[in-house]
C-alpha cells in the first residue's frame, strides 16, 4: 500500500489516495450501524426488564442478569473488532501513505521550491497535516457517524412515545446547528491565521536550532527570543479573540438546549397527568432526551475539532498538489547513453526566480572525454552552470545538450544518472549511518574494498582508520563529528564510488576548498587515473585545482564567458586570471 519511489513526479490525487480505503471503510460503516442498533436495544432493555419484572414478580431478576451481560459482551466484541479494523485497514495505512506521498513530493519538487520553504516549516506542514487528516478521518468515522446513527435511532422511540415533543426537539436542533455554523464561520479566519503562524513558528524554531552555535557566539539569543516572543503573542492574541467568539456562542447554544430540555420535561409531565405515559417510559424518554441533547454538545465539539483539523490538512493538501516546475517531458523515452558524454551550452541565459540574469549568453562545449575547468569571482555563476546541466533549474533561453540531446528531452532520472557530482555544499551525511555506508550512499551495493579504494584516493582512509570504530563509526547529523575537510573528502569518495555505469560525467564544484594545499596536491595526484579519458567539469577558486587536469579553462565573469584557453594562455592574456595566478603562487589562501 505504500507509495513506491520513482523520479516521475506523480500528480497527487485525493481520489487515488483514498481508493484503497473505500472497501474497508464501507465494512466499517456497516459494522457501525449494527453497533449503534445494539446500543439502542441495550438502552431499551432496561425498560423491558423493568416491565417484565413488575409483571412477573415470581421470576427472580437475577435470571435476567446473565442474558443482559451476554448482550453487553456482544456489543463490546463488535466494538473491539471495529476499532481493530479501523486501525489496521484505515488509520495506520492512511498515515503511512500520506507521509510517504509527502516525502516523495519533497524529492520531486525543484530546488527553487525547497529554497523558498524552510525545512522546519515543511516538516511542520507534513507532521501537522498528516496527523490532522488521520484525526479527521477518525473523528468522522469513529465519532460523528456513530453519533449520527445513534441520534437517528434514539429519535425513533422518542417520537413514537411522545410525538408532541418533536417540534421542540427539531426547533432546538435547528437553532443549535445554525448557531454552530455561524460560530465557525466567524472563527475561520482566526483559525487560518493561527495555523499559518504555527507553520512559521516551526520554521523559525528549527532555523534557530540549526544555527544555535553561531547565534550563541554572536550573543543574539535575547534578540531572537524577543522576536520569537512576538510571534507567540500574535498566536495568543488571535487565539484569545477566537475563544471570545466561542464563549459567546457557547452560552447561546447552552441556553437553547436548556430551553428545549425543560420544555420536553414539562410536556411529559403533562402527558403523564393525562395517563398517556407511565413512569418507566418517562424515565426512558428522559434518558433518551438527555443523551440526545448532550450529543448535540458532542457534535459541536466534534465539529470544532474537525474544523480545527481541516486547516492543517488543507495546508498539507495544498503542498501535495503543488506542481513541480521541472518534470519529465511527456512521453519521454530513455536516451541511448554513448560511451562518452559531451555537454554543449549554446547561448544559454538564466536567472533565478524574478532575479537578475546570472548566466548571460553562455556558449560552452565540453567535448566527450575532455576536462573543462571553470574559474571566476565568487558569484560569477559557476555553481549555477552545475545546477543547469543536471536540470536542477531550467534555462530561460538557448540550448543545453547532454550527449547531443536537449536536457528537456531526457527523462529526468536518467539525465541525473549521467552525472556524479561533488556539490559545493558537500556530500550527504545522514545521522546514524556508518562511514562505510555514507561513502556507499550513491552505490549501496559497492563492496567494502571498493569503498576503501575510493577513500584512499580521496585521502580520507587514514582519518577513518583513526576513528573509534574505523569504517563502522556512525556519522552524526550533517556530519557533525567530522571536520569540514573530512566531510569534503568523504563527499569526493562518495562521488568517485558512484562513478560507474551510465554515470559518466564528473562534476567537481569547489571540492578541495576546505583542504590544505598539501592534501589537495595529493588528491589531485590520486585523481589522475580517474579522470583519464573522462568528461569532467571542474569548478574552482584555486587555479591549482584546474590547471592540473583541465584541457581548457573557462573564465566566467558576471555570468558570461570572459575568456577561455589553456592556463598559460590565460596567464598571458587575461589580466584577472594573471593577477589571481600571481596571488595564489605567493599564497596558499584561496582567492575569492
Ligand atoms: N537560489 C538562488 N536564488 C537566487 N539567486 C541565486 C541563487 N543561487 C545563486 N544565486 C545568485 O546567482 C549568482 C551566481 O551564483 P553562483 O552560486 O552560481 O556563483 P558561484 O560563481 O558559484 O560563486 P562561488 O564561487 O561563491 O561559489 C550570485 O549572484 C548569487 O547571488
Ligand atoms: Mg559556487
From TrEMBL:
GO MF: ABC-type transporter activity; ATP binding; ATP hydrolysis activity
Ranges for domain ABC transporter: 343-583
Membrane topology reported for the UniProt record: Multi-pass membrane protein
SMART domains: AAA
PROSITE patterns per the UniProt record, alphabetical: ABC_TM1F, ABC_TRANSPORTER_1, ABC_TRANSPORTER_2
Main subcellular location: membrane
Keywords: ATP-binding, Membrane, Nucleotide-binding, Transmembrane, Transmembrane helix
GO CC aspect terms: plasma membrane
Subcellular location: Cell membrane
Pfam families to which the protein is assigned, alphabetical: ABC_membrane, ABC_tran
Domain ABC transmembrane type-1 span(s) in chain numbering: 80-308
Transmembrane spans: 25-47, 59-78, 158-182
Descriptive protein name: ABC transporter related
Organism: Solibacter usitatus (strain Ellin6076)
